[in-house]
Each structure stands twice: as structure tokens, then as C-alpha cells.
């Protein structure tokens, strides 16, 4: 029989919730409180009821458990505080469904990153889909035990349990982290093959993919004590999965509405059918720019209203792929984070960019489109990088001096500047708000750290020795250095450049991890990595790409692994099972990720070459186009020519200092007015994240993401809380699933066979003048010339 740990404080909190339910305000804490309104603490006979030892029972009777409860209210109310160590975890079902989920998600996510509207499919899809399959296997597989070298096992050890379900989701998460929005290693390989037309061996590419992932796993193992063990590092996105696990495994009382599984199947079917419209039949739904229809001959109106090439004011997308493409699903992002992103977005798109473009003509902005991911010459034409490249993919300085300087669209240039500010703001924010906690954790790491109930329950399992992670870390470093010697001409990055990248990852992973573990947003530092190596190794674009993925991708995947480790911590998964699942999932996902990308690059003619593709082609690769642009800006031409003394964009460097200073007044105010709980929620790195990723993200993408998040996480949450807590996350998964399956079907059944529709409704953006310059004397095909 299960025993649960409770205390009077939790009862008081629940009573307070019930009493004030009608008048709640939307702080980040309250946002997550309602995840568990209908997930009460399990009783003894429930499938959720689990075991603790007799010492725990005695402590509960003496009221000692109050001190052991997690002090983060969201976690205390959502995460079960009991455990049953006897439940089987690494079963045949878990291995089979986990590996299958990993392969399916990595295929879909890799496939969609090459599209004009990329889509990242979350692991929540597989989290829901594998449940009926797991239960079916539990009902049909033989229960007979087999023996192998003295080890006894069964294909069917009993009912399909929650821990198996969690470990399957861990496998699936590997498919998301590899193929999703931050697939930088594949981005580098795509740029090398598609844009630079470089001859690259599959073995070298596999080294690049796998070593960057293993580096991330090594960093994760070292940083567990800072980003997993402390209760303050609660990783908000994990609570959505925890809540969904409980919803799927607890018996649901019959009500008038649909069950969650019924709702998921219906919503997925509708999403599947609907995506035929924006995905094929009526593509204009992807960027609905109605202002351009009202003023079809006005350049300024189209610059303002275009959702694809302009500021996107008034434009929106009715395409789920467009809504969730760059910041993930808005349905699973805390409301306070949405507000921070909205503040940054409004300031940047509606104030800063228009003023710089129309008022001050900053950086000769009016010579170029107001928003574009292309590179330009001084005359407003696209920059042809082939004219300044040597056969060894280095910069031909004489050719560059003859051809002329490189220019950026104004929004692109300002977005780069925001990256400077975001990097230093992240370091300052973490130092001020979390520095003392990190120092305290560092001092106590080797001692006896006080544990909450979750940490104490996890003590029942064998921990993973740190040297297991160190082997992966140093082994990956060694293989990376071998690659730098063996394929020296292909990768351009010398061995000391690799070591420099490793050092950068060590410095930045912890502060960025703190931001993500507390806000569910991940400030990037791609620009900084490329800025640094661009000064050290100018004129070498491939070296710049490789430095970015070794200095940045290892951090991205370290944080993904750490998030999963925290999920395993919450769900009481044995650490060694977590280690095995993450390691195997990483190896499988890496191979499949590269194989799918390699197949697409070789089989789709002119993939990613938007100047050669038909204008309706879905394979324009906007994410990888920006990766290529970055390799030109930071690697081929170099930051010294653009941002150094005499460079056109030299004043943007001041944003390093501005970003470092901005978090200070917020921290000072939070100390002066400690009773104002909303002040610490002002997060400068997250505010600056409101205009991160543009390009390739468009203002219409981000605006629609914000609008959708407001509808569900403010209005629906506030006025129909029970619907929200029951169906919100299920709807997010269903939209991902339906869109993904229809997208793949359209490609293989229609687009791959050359059956492309051509009519007014398939034009993505009816704003042809939005790409026109407005400076006098600039001549561009299809645009009027201003005198």
C-alpha cells in the first residue's frame, strides 16, 4: 500500500486557492497553480499512490515534512511527492516505443526545418500517442520470463506504468532537441553543402553532429548540481509534462465533456484537415497582410503591413506552423514570459525600427528593404559572395575591396545589436538575481546539501558517477580535435579554436541555464560566439560556423539534457536509467538527423537557394539562410570590417554596455520594494528575446505567437480555467501532430511529384513593394525609382 507525505501548509494553500479562485491575478506562480486544480494528491488505492519508507511516515506524523516540501509553489502543487522504487522502468515496451518515438520525431523535425514555415514538433505529441500503444502492448505481450546469462526478463512485466511513459518521453525529447529550432550542427552542414557547395564527407559530418551532442551531455553532467539539484531551478516547461502524465495516468471521472484522449484525437484530426489550406490549397493564410490589399500601390503601406517582408503591423498568420515556428508553442509558455517578450517586441518593431528607418535613415537604411534576411551592396542589390571567395573558401581581400562593402537590412542590423545587449544582460541578470545562490551552491556542493522531498526520495537510487559524464566530455573533445587535424581544410578551425569554443561553452552555459530554468526562455549568444572568432580568424566562414556550433550547440543540448534530468528528478526516474536513455537516444537521433538532412540536400534540386527556386517552393530554408548570412558577416568579411573603427555598424557595439547596465535598476527596485512581487518578473534578457530570431522569424510570426498566448493563457485561463487545465496542453500537442502529418503527406503525395498549385490564394504575401528601397536613385527590378 502506498503512503503519502502531506502537511498542513499544503492544505492551507489549497483552501486559499479555492477561496480566491474568482479573483486571481495572473502572476507566473498563479499561472502554474491551476495546472493541478483537478490533480489532487493521490490516495492510497490510486495508481498514483506510491511508497516511502517508515522514516518518512514518522516525519510526516511529527510535522517535519513541511520543511522538506519544495518551496517553489508551482512544483509543490503539481509534482507528486511520493515514489514507488519497485516500478519497472527500462522495459521492452520502453525501449521499443522510446526508440520509435525518437526516430519519428527526429525525422519530422529535420524535415520541417528546411521549409519556408519551419515547425518544431514537441515531445508532448509522442507523450500522448504512446499511451494507448503501451497499454495495448501490456494487454497482449506474453508475460513469460526469459533468461539470458543469468538475467531474468519479461516482455510484459505488468501494467504500463508512468515511469515507462516518462523514459519513452526522454527518448522522444532527443528527437526534438536534435531536429528542432536549434539544429545548429545540421545548419552548419547545410550551409557547407547547399550554399558554399563544399565537398564534405558523410563521416566528417557525422563527427560534427555527434561530438557536439556528446559535449553537451558532458556539460550537463557537470552542471547537475547547479541546474538540477537546487529547488529554485524548477524548469517551468517540465510542469506541463508532469501535469500531462498525471492527467493520462490518473483515472478521469466521467463528465459531460470529452476525455483528454478523445479531445486530442478530434483536435488532431481537425488540425490535420485544416493544414491542407495554409500548407497547400490556400497558402495566403500563412501571412495574412490585409493592409497591402487596401493600398496596393503604396510602398510605405506595404513596408508597414507586409507580414513576410515588412513590419507586419496588422498582419497575422492562421498557420500553426507559423505561430509555433520560432518561440515554440505559446500554449505552454508562462504568462509572465509572454508579457516580457511582448514588451520587447512592441518596443523594437513598433518604435525603434520605424524611427531608425524613417526618421534618421540609420545605416543608410532606406537603400534596402526594411526587413530582409539577404545581404546587400551599396547600390541596394543582393550581395554575391561568390565574387569574393577563393577556391579554399577564404576571403579574397582584393576582390572584396573591388566589389565593395556589405550592407544589411535595417531590421537585421538592429537585431544583431540586440544580440549584443542580450548577451551581457544575461550575465548581469544572473549575477545580480542568482549570484549569491550559485556561490552558496558551489560552496555546499561537496557537503551535505539540504534536500526537499524530491531530492530525498531520489536518494533511494544509485546516482550516476560524475566520471561517466567526464568520459563523454573529454572523449568528445578528443574526437573534435582529431577532426580538426584530419579534415583540416574542410573545417578550417584549428585545434586551438576548438579549445576556445569549449572554454566559451563553460562560461555561458550556467547563466543561460539559470534564465531558462526560471523563465522558460533561452537567451542565445550565437552572435557573440561568431563575433569573437571572427576577430581571431577573419576571412574563414567555415571556421566561424564550426566555432559557433562547438561553442553554442553544446550549450543548447546541455540545457536540453538538464531539462530532461529535472523531469526525471520530478518523476523519480532512476538516474542511471536516465543516463542510458539520453545517451542511446542521442546517438540514434544524431545518425537519423544527419541521414534525413543529407537525403534532402541531395534529392531536392536547388534546396535552400531561394533565388533559383520557384517562388512558391516550400524549400527556401529561412533558418539556414540566416546561418549562411551569419557565416558571411562574421566569418568571411569579419566583424572588424563591419563593427570595428570606421565600420558602418560600429555604434552597435555600445549595446554590449547598455545590456550590461539595464538589469541593474530592476534589481535595485526589487530590493527597495521587496513587497512588489511583480518587479523581479521584469526580465531584461527575456524582453530582449522579443526581437530575437528576426530574421528568419518575421514580425507576423511573433505577433501571432503573442496573440495566441494571450488568448489561451490570459483570457481562457482567467474565464474558463477548468477547460484550460484539462485541454490546453492537449490542444498544443494535437495542433503539432495534425500539422506535421499533413505537411509530410502533402510533400510526398503532391509537392515531391511536382503538383504545385498556382493561383492568387497560393501567393504567400501580396506585398511586392515591401521589398523596395525608398532612398533616391536606388534602382531595383520591380520597384519605382525615387528622385
UniProtKB/TrEMBL annotation:
UniProt-annotated location(s): Membrane
InterPro entries according to UniProt: Oligpept_transpt, OPT
Transmembrane residue ranges: 92-112, 119-138, 200-220, 263-296, 308-326, 338-360, 411-434, 467-487, 493-515, 527-543, 579-601, 652-669, 678-694, 700-717, 729-750
Entry protein name: Oligopeptide transporter
Compositionally biased spans, kind Basic and acidic residues: 56-67
Region (Disordered): 48-67
Record key words, sorted: Membrane, Peptide transport, Protein transport, Transmembrane, Transmembrane helix, Transport
Entry's family note: Belongs to the oligopeptide OPT transporter (TC 2.A.67.1) family.
Membrane-protein topology: Multi-pass membrane protein
Keyword set includes Transport: yes
Gene Ontology MF terms in the entry: oligopeptide transmembrane transporter activity
Gene Ontology CC terms, in alphabetical order: membrane
GO biological process: one example: protein transport
Amino acid at each position: 500500500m502506498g503512503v503519502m507525505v502531506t502537511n498542513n501548509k499544503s492544505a492551507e494553500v489549497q483552501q486559499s486557492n479555492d477561496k480566491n479562485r474568482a479573483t486571481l491575478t495572473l502572476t507566473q506562480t498563479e499561472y502554474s497553480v491551476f495546472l493541478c486544480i483537478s490533480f489532487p494528491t493521490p490516495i492510497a488505492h490510486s495508481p498514483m499512490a506510491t511508497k516511502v519508507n517508515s522514516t518518512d511516515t514518522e516525519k510526516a506524523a511529527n510535522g517535519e515534512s513541511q520543511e522538506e516540501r519544495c518551496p517553489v509553489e508551482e512544483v509543490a502543487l503539481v509534482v507528486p511527492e511520493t515514489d514507488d522504487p519497485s516500478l519497472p522502468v527500462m522495459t521492452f515496451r520502453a525501449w521499443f516505443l522510446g526508440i520509435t518515438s525518437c526516430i519519428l520525431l527526429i525525422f519530422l523535425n529535420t524535415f520541417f526545418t528546411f521549409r519556408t514555415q519551419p515547425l518544431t514538433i514537441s515531445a508532448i505529441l509522442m507523450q500522448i500517442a504512446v499511451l494507448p500503444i503501451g497499454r495495448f502492448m501490456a494487454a497482449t505481450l506474453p508475460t513469460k520470463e526469459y533468461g539470458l546469462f543469468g538475467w531474468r526478463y519479461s516482455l510484459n512485466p505488468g501494467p504500463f506504468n508512468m515511469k515507462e511513459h516518462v523514459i519513452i518521453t526522454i527518448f522522444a525529447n532527443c528527437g526534438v532537441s536534435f531536429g528542432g529550432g536549434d539544429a545548429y550542427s545540421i545548419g552548419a552542414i547545410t550551409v557547407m553543402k547547399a550554399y558554399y557547395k563544399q565537398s564534405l564527407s558523410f563521416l566528417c559530418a557525422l563527427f560534427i553532429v555527434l561530438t557536439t551532442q556528446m559535449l553537451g551531455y558532458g556539460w550537463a553532467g557537470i552542471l547537475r548540481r547547479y541546474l538540477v539539484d537546487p529547488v529554485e531551478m524548477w524548469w517551468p516547461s517540465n510542469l506541463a509534462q508532469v501535469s500531462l502524465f498525471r492527467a493520462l495516468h490518473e483515472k478521469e471521472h466521467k463528465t459531460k465533456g470529452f476525455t483528454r484522449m478523445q479531445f486530442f484525437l478530434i483536435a488532431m484530426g481537425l488540425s490535420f484537415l485544416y493544414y491542407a489550406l495554409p500548407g497547400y490549397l490556400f497558402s495566403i493564410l500563412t501571412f495574412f497582410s490585409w493592409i497591402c490589399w487596401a493600398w496596393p500601390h503604396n510602398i510605405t503601406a506595404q513596408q508597414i503591413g507586409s507580414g513576410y517582408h515588412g513590419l507586419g503591423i496588422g498582419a497575422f498568420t492562421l498557420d500553426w506552423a507559423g505561430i509555433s515556428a520560432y518561440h515554440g508553442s505559446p500554449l505552454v509558455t508562462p504568462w509572465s514570459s509572454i508579457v516580457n517578450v511582448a514588451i520587447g517586441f512592441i518596443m523594437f518593431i513598433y518604435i525603434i525600427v520605424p524611427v531608425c528607418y524613417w526618421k534618421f535613415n540609420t545605416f543608410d537604411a532606406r537603400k534596402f528593404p526594411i526587413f530582409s534576411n539577404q545581404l546587400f551592396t551599396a547600390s541596394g542589390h543582393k550581395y554575391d559572395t561568390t565574387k569574393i571567395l577563393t577556391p579554399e573558401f577564404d576571403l579574397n581581400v582584393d576582390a572584396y575591396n573591388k566589389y565593395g562593402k556589405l550592407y544589411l537590412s535595417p531590421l537585421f542590423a538592429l537585431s544583431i545589436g540586440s544580440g549584443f545587449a542580450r548577451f551581457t544582460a544575461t550575465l548581469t541578470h544572473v549575477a545580480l538575481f542568482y549570484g549569491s545562490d550559485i556561490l552558496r551552491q558551489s560552496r555546499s556542493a561537496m557537503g551535505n546539501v539540504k534536500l526537499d522531498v524530491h531530492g530525498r526520495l531520489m536518494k533511494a537510487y544509485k546516482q550516476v558517477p560524475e566520471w561517466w559524464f567526464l568520459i563523454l566530455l573529454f572523449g568528445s573533445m578528443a574526437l573534435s580535435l582529431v577532426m580538426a587535424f584530419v579534415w583540416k581544410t574542410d573545417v578550417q578551425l584549428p585545434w586551438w579554436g576548438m579549445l576556445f569554443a569549449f572554454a566559451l561553452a563553460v562560461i555561458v552555459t550556467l547563466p543561460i541555464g539559470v534564465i531558462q530554468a526560471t523563465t522558460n526562455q533561452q537567451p542565445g549568444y550565437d552572435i557573440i560566439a561568431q563575433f569573437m572568432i571572427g576577430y581571431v580568424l577573419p576571412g574563414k566562414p567555415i571556421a566561424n560556423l564550426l566555432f559557433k556550433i562547438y561553442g553554442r550547440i553544446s550549450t543548447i543540448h546541455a540545457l536540453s539534457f538538464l531539462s530532461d534530468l529535472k523531469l526525471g528528478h520530478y518523476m523519480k526516474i532512476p538516474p542511471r536509467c536516465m543516463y542510458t536513455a539520453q545517451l542511446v537516444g542521442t546517438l540514434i537521433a544524431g545518425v537519423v538527423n544527419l541521414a534525413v538532412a543529407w537525403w534532402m540536400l541531395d534529392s531536392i534540386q536547388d534546396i535552400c537557394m531561394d533565388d533559383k527556386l520557384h517562388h512558391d517552393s516550400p524549400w527556401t530554408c529561412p533558418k539556414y539562410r540566416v546561418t549562411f548570412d551569419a557565416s558571411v558577416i562574421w566569418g568571411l568579411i569579419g566583424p572588424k570590417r563591419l563593427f570595428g573603427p570606421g565600420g558602418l555598424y560600429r555604434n552597435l557595439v555600445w549595446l554590449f554596455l547598455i545590456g550590461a547596465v539595464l538589469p541593474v535598476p530592476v534589481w535595485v527596485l526589487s530590493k527597495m520594494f521587496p513587497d512588489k512581487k511583480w518587479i523581479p518578473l521584469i526580465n531584461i534578457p527575456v524582453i530582449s528575446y522579443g526581437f530575437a530570431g528576426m530574421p528568419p522569424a518575421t514580425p507576423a510570426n511573433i505577433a501571432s505567437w503573442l496573440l495566441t498566448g494571450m488568448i489561451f493563457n490570459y483570457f481562457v485561463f482567467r474565464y474558463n480555467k477548468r477547460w484550460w487545465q484539462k485541454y490546453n496542453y492537449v490542444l498544443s500537442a494535437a495542433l503539432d501532430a495534425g500539422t506535421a502529418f499533413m505537411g509530410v503527406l502533402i510533400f510526398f503525395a503532391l509537392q515531391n511529384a511536382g503538383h504545385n498549385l498556382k493561383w492568387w490564394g497560393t501567393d504567400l504575401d501580396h506585398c511586392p513593394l515591401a521589398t523596395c528601397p525608398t532612398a533616391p536613385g536606388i534602382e531595383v527590378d520591380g520597384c519605382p525609382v525615387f528622385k
